[in-house]
Amino acid sequence: MVVEYLSGLLLCKKGHKNMERMAEVWHWDGKEEKAQKENLAHNTGREVEVFIQ
What pTM does this model have? Predict the structure, then answer.
């Protein structure tokens, strides 16, 4: 799931606000939804930004 999410972010490449927006609209599976969103909200800004570069 996270790999698919990162791939979606790579298509975006428009900064942290769009990453947060994708986190809000992304469809997660089952019980992990809340935990995944919280984890991404905590990590995407720094880690994904480096990953995109």
Answer: 0.20
